[in-house]
Amino acid sequence: MPQSSPRPLAVITGATGGLAPAVAHAFAAAGYRLALVSRPGRETALDPLVAELTAASAGTEVAVIGIDLLSPEDCLASFGRLEADMGPVSALLNLAGGFAMGGPVTHGAQALEHMLDLNLRTAVNATAALLPGMQSRASGFVAAVGANAVTAPAPGMTAYAASKGALAAFQRSLASEAAKHGVHVALLIPAGAIDTPGNRAAMPKADPARWIDPAALAEALLYLAGNRPRGRVHELVVTPG
Question: Which of 76, 83, 152, 218 is most buried, by CB atoms within 10 Å?
């Protein structure tokens, strides 16, 4: 039987990624319990983040779970076990994703499939596993992170832009469908590079002061999660300045 708790439960996918720590800290500080999702076998990589969260927010309940987000079956089974242990999920934050240069014309169809796997199918499978329960409770929040490449095309990003465009279309359509059942669906769009360790390593000559602070994106997700039913914001663009 799940433990009863007055605190809402937020699931963060892509928890080993660069944006996840800021989002986890923000939601923990706002009173959420957390379930951090990694790829199977990478759960221990989250030990430092769990220690930080526990130290920063006394009493915060943090669970770590390895899920193959490309497997609809694993998503259904694993999220089912999670809710059986911790209770219903209030917020699903689809942060899992990735970036690679190229596209189907220059690098073959596999380049597009790889980006669709990372940026679209992970969110679709996690959402499909948790949304029915949210709709049955007429309560919940589902967010995903888009990309500036969808509206501001750049050379060499065909597959990435296509996958993020598909994700944006999915979220926008789902927002209309889920609203009828009391569930809020939103899309967060960082209009620029995010200041993460990965981006700093990939672009050592760039000035990170011109990039978006992950804390700003975390605050934006909290804002979206707290929208009032009669005044929803379904899409929010965050710029570097």
Answer: 218
